[in-house]
Predict the structure.
Amino acid sequence: MNSRLIASIAVGAALALGTTGCAMISPQATTIEYSAAEGVNVYDAGPLDVRNAFIVANEDGSEGNFVAAIVNQTDESHTLRIELGEGSSTIPLTVRVPANTTISLGADGEDPILVQNLDTPAGADIPGYFQSGDGDGTLTSVPVLDGELPYLAPLVP
């Protein structure tokens, strides 16, 4: 009878450890940074932060509107340099952001930036290099969307 009790306790302990032990080695989802929106966030491009950057393309993907919020929390004006695409087909964009200001391209009365010769259909990503100030810049994937959602429809070129 004593051995049955010990076996029951061992099975119960193994079961409890087996069902809860996986949480000990799994990463917590709340500690993983991600963009909870359509676009991407870029924080390592220099003194300027880029939030929710994406492109809304026309039907054939030949052109699109670049949309993003660009945040300057410094006491100086800075220029954000953006290169979309790769190689010889790189599309350069620049945005000047005054000190202590946020520019919301495509919202708050600010026009988005028209990207011509995009050649990227909706549903794909395009490489985007973002750099400002003395920062090294950051390469990331910028999503290309269509105007299917009602709030994106006005942004289709």
